[in-house]
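At this stage, I needed to go through a protein sequence along with its fold in token form, as given directly below:
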Amino acid sequence: MHSYEVEVKTLLGSKERAEEVRGAMRKADASCTFVSKNKQLNHYFASGQLSVLEKSVSPQLSKDARTRFHDIAQKAEEFSVRTREKDPSTTLGASAEVFLVVKASVSDSSSANGISRIEFEEKVSVSLDALDKIILENGFKYQAKWSREREEYLCKGVNVTLDKNAGYGWLAEFERVVDDENQLGTAEKQVRALMKELGVEELPQDRLERMFAFYNKHWKDYYGTEKIFHVE
């Protein structure tokens, strides 16, 4: 069974604004839960085909994940392939986890930054470099590499992340994940209602696309740093 996500981003900019959002969440929902804090490396890929990648990546996936990956490979017209290394920095003794991620558009927005997308995320047992190598050997190339520190919260049934991103600075993402595409409309209403209550505004898609394009062109200057750029 596939997972579908509604994800809306808002640009916070400063750590002070991020703290205001933390306070607003606690005020809006007394049961607001801090879920985790971690550091991530996210590598984005372009130019390949899922149908070609499928054979090589299948040995790294569970039976259920292979079925879901095959379904996306057959249906997706626009998609974004990524690898992720997550360091659970708040868990004593925990080691980094590596994931294969595919996001495919289910609306008129892009698979890289769109609001409504079908989501595939599967933990694998190989290293980030080894997973990257599999993807690169199957016709893909690096689009960009991203680094961030992430805090995860659950507020009024919505997954909220506060990210300190290389290049972007502080960014918040509001997400609901459902297992039925027909539930996406309701999920989006819940997300936007919480954002309104917290007093945050959506980062417009056209500006987000410009920021994404700028970072893709200059990612080597920002990856693994705390440097920030500004694009209107």
In short: Residues 3-221 form a domain with the Hypothetical Protein Pfu-838710-001 fold (CATH 2.40.320.10). The first strand starts at residue 3 and ends at 13.
